[in-house]
Design brief:
Helices cover about 40% and strands about 15% of the residues. It is built from 16 helices and 16 strands. The strands form 5 sheets. The chain has an 8-stranded parallel β-barrel, surrounded by 5 helices. It has a two-stranded parallel sheet with strand order 6-8. It starts with 19 loop residues before the first strand and ends in a 9-residue tail after the last helix.
Length: about 500
């Protein structure tokens, strides 16, 4: 009997050679220096710390209205606008990168703040100080043997474009973003290989202001606001494809990826209605990768628009652009799974990052109400790879927790070690199932300002930063217990996970 051997099959014990271990941050949460060296004001500079709100009230924490914008523009405060101060990565990046190198990082994800290069987004010429800063950062990473993964837009669009163009609802913003990307591609063509266009492009309905610059109160009703958000999303899809086209012309060695939030939904029971609800949510989550990987809108979205009288303007050639310039790989964030039920109103709820569902009794829950599900990471990776047959890359995953500094200055964060041990093993199992995974970048490898709550006390890192929610502290960096643990994981390419 003849057997057919799979020429692509590999004897993967745990993680493949060249697996890109590392971590990730965003400029708006780490850099600080919000008005230094010509930088303009971004949507992140409007985000405020609201200690009076429940930390699990994600809708209120993320929401920004016209009065919030006006108030933020009238002040230089950095205490209650903590993303303006970050952790001073802008001035301390050499120290921080050296610590990442000490852990053995193979890759580091970071973003370019659009407003450092084009302060208002409309300028014809870029800001040289901003360009030079990122060149120095990328060179520093290369000196330490760390591969940068660069996000062009990570919740940092110029505030000017929100106030004068209604954000991404304006077709003109596409050209401004392409100009920004072109400058970056040309300046860093020999320093950066891996690029992402938009961070969590699916977040448009979770926080429209932060993602696409849409201020929902400006619209007559929810239907009009929803249509505006879809229009803005379409413009981002087109911009992403145009930027992908441009990148390949400037440097054929560039690799361009998309980035989405992987939200996995389970049915509460085997009731077909529960199964359908979960399927519907998972399908919606896949919509954003369908457009960027397959190059077309799924029919269920077009049908939804038709049923709900939503009219998204397509310019001639848009569909051809989306089809012709799809991404090379898929990156995603993963923090939790959710449960859907026809009896949801009678069930206890949990949430995270504005995603809400029924509590799963089989899972633990973090202090911020996020359910911890490493098995869901494996399931999500398999789903993505089976659907698209493209390499996947975990570029955001971690646990926000309260850390306690001991009298001797040490931080025993065994909960973080346990979290990553289980999630890393889940990735290894997905790889053994045949998933082509490029790497795992933990969020956030050094403590930074929280995206959702603007807290500092919600800590993710292997490196502790001495700063509290009001900005008090020395900004001293300290290695947590997890620092040495992760260094050993990277050093052994994951083998140490199975030695413990």
């Amino acid at each position: 009997m003849n057997t057919i051997e799979d020429p692509t099959a590999t004897d993967v014990k745990h993680f493949p050679e060249g697996f890109l271990w590392g971590g990730a941050i965003a400029a708006n949460q780490a850099e600080g220096a919000w008005n230094v060296d010509g930088k303009g004001m971004s949507v992140a500079d409007v985000a405020s710390y609201r200690p009076h709100l429940d930390i699990k009230d994600y809708v209120s924490q993320w929401h920004v209205g016209p009065e919030d914008i006006e108030k933020a523009m009238a002040t230089d405060d950095v205490t209650y606008y903590p993303k303006r101060r970050g952790i001073d990565f802008y001035h301390r990046y050499r120290e921080d990168i050296a610590m990442l190198a000490e852990m053995g990082f193979k890759s580091f994800r970071l973003s370019i703040a659009w407003t450092r290069i084009f302060p208002n987004g409309i300028e014809e010429e870029p800001n040289e100080a901003g360009l030079a800063y990122y060149e120095n950062v990328f060179r520093c990473l290369r000196e330490h043997g760390i591969e940068p993964l660069v996000t062009l837009s990570h919740y940092e669009m110029p505030l000017y474009l929100v106030n004068h163009y209604d954000g991404w609802t304006s077709r003109e913003v596409i050209g401004m973003f392409v100009r920004f990307a072109k400058v970056c591609f040309e300046r860093y063509r020999d320093l950066v290989t891996y690029w992402l266009t938009f961070n969590e492009i699916d977040s448009v309905f979770r926080h429209a202001f932060t993602t696409v610059g849409v201020v929902e109160e400006k619209y007559a009703d929810k239907h009009e606001a929803e249509q505006a958000i879809y229009q803005a999303l379409h413009h981002q899809f087109v911009a992403s494809s145009l930027v992908t086209k441009l990148a390949r012309r400037i440097n054929p060695d560039f690799r361009i990826g998309c980035m989405v939030t992987k939200t996995l939904n389970y049915p509460e029971t085997c009731n077909p209605e529960d199964v359908y609800l979960a399927q519907r949510e998972n399908r919606t989550n896949m919509f954003y990768t369908d457009v960027q990987v397959l190059g077309e809108y799924p029919r269920h979205v077009l049908n939804y628009w038709r049923r709900n009288d939503i009219h998204v303007r397509f310019e001639p050639g848009d569909e051809e652009i989306l089809k012709a310039y799809t991404v090379d790989f898929i990156t995603f964030s993963y923090y939790m799974s959710m449960v859907q039920s026809v009896h949801a109103e009678q069930r206890e709820k949990v949430g995270g990052n504005l995603v809400t569902g029924v509590r799963n009794p089989y899972l633990e829950t973090s202090d911020w109400g996020w359910q911890i599900d490493p098995e869901g990471l494996k399931i999500g990776m398999i789903d993505l790879y089976d659907r698209y047959h493209k390499p996947v890359w975990v570029v955001e995953s971690g646990i926000g927790a309260y850390d306690t500094v001991n009298e001797d200055g040490s931080i025993d964060d065994d909960y973080r070690i346990d979290y990553f041990r289980r999630h890393f093993k889940a990735v290894a199992e997905a790889i053994d199932e045949g998933v082509e995974c490029m790497g795992y970048l933990t969020w956030a490898c050094i403590d930074i300002i929280s995206a959702s709550t603007s807290q500092m006390s919600k800590r993710y890192g292997f490196i502790y930063v001495d700063e509290d929610d009001l900005g008090n502290g020395t900004l001293e960096r300290r290695r947590k217990k997890s620092f040495d643990w992760y260094r050993r994981v990277i050093e052994t390419n994951g083998e140490s996970l199975y030695e413990e």
